[in-house]
Amino acid sequence: MLYNATSKLLVKSRDLHKIQLYCNVNANVIFMFFNLS
Fold this sequence. Notes:
mainly alpha; 1 helix
């Protein structure tokens, strides 16, 4: 039971990390685009 809850939490935090990385990459691309234009 406890292991199940922990693994679910880990999956959620990993997804959050992926979303964070994705947002960071998008922000960098937008920033570069503005710098070039």
